[in-house]
Fold this protein.
Amino acid sequence: MKPSLIPAAMLLLCTASATAWAAPGTVLRNEKLYAQPSASARVAGTVAKGASVNILAKQGGWLRVTSGKTTGWIRLLSVRAGAGGLGGAGVGDVVGAATTRSDPSRVVAVAGLRGLNEEDLKQAKFDANELARMEALSVTPTQARSYAGQSGLAAVNVPALPAPKPAESSSSWETN
Amino acid sequence: MKIKLMILAVSLLAFNGAAAGIDFGKLLEERINKELNKDKPTQPAPAQPSSTAPAATQNAAASPPPEKQKVDARQLGFALFGEYSIEEENRIGRQVAGDLLGAVKLVRDDKLQNYVNLVGNWVAQQSGRKDVTWRFGVIDSEDINAFAAPGGYVFVTKGLYRRLNNEAELAGVLGHEIAHVSQKHHLKLLKQSSLIGALGQAASSKAKDSDQVVQNLIGNGAEIMARKLDKNAEFEADRVGIVYAARAGYTPWGLPNVLQDLAGLPAGDARTGLLYKTHPHPADRLAELGEAVDGRLDAVRGKELANRFYRVQ
């Protein structure tokens, strides 16, 4: 049985980035489900904050989800992937994530890997050679503009986003 | 000249309060020297000629006055009340970046590094900060994280880069880091913390090396990168970063998609340890971003550019 797990996991990994898949999600605020990925489309239903949904597809800023018997499109930012509930549990730390049931397609072998930590950074000694290397690899604004243009990227006028009203707390979404 | 320097130094110390003034040690002295070496040495605080001087001295950072007055106002408080100059910012950033690179090397793939610089520089051009020389680097760590240092040094780990699916997602991640620089989040953090303690070392340090001065200012190694910014600074960087990406012609949904990916990662993954220590949980970031964005980006169309996205092994 064991050997068959690897190709299965690989297959899952490959499909994870496609636009259509089914994954659990949690609704982050009271929202409407629309018949089409557009706020001007017919409203197919509503979902409450904290509700579990099944994510079926992704298109631009929209996710197609099912909630109970209703299927519709919801804003990408109104759902978190994973079945971990509302998330950070207010402490903004792994404590909240400890309850996260992981998406099996995301499991990659991590055993034995130790991440970057504070101590590594504290002990770090200035590396002039590596810094010189980084500085030598930088490009000019003209080069960057030209590269952007090669794929048809052009500057767009997009207004700045306003800060949400209660700026002093991260838990603004919990109270409304 | 010597006497002038003394007078200026003494009046600056008096103005700032002795403790805070002394803490700035050599950096302050250099700044005074710089001011004095101009052909027209300006007088200290009380002699400010302009009628807007009181307002400017009260809050030098708030409203940038015309060029001449700006210098006058800033020399009063230097980093204590005013803003760091771009030279000071660069010196600090250079030291932080060099320290970080002492802990983690750049990935030895010049094509990758060039690609990230081309994308990053283009996104950074939408930030409006033209005084910064932007440098981007992918560092050789399986950790999932990204860092920004003052002065325009931006880092993405290979572990995070590998999870990206297209250029728009890269632009979103870089946009978040660029926003930290354009909003000067780390400089603000530095100013707060250095006033409290770390700067005491600068005064006592006998080091002649200017880098040592900055090192004293920022603390041990690249420790500042492991410090937690204010939560609202992270939310602001998300908000500002996706707008930079959108202004660069990318879909604004790059960063949100990366956050969705991170939200679905298994808990307790060693690769996200530092990320979660220094950032709010991705679910909180998505929720906060959702409040700010709502329908405001519905009309924005942008590119994903999955095809030319450079993939690492």
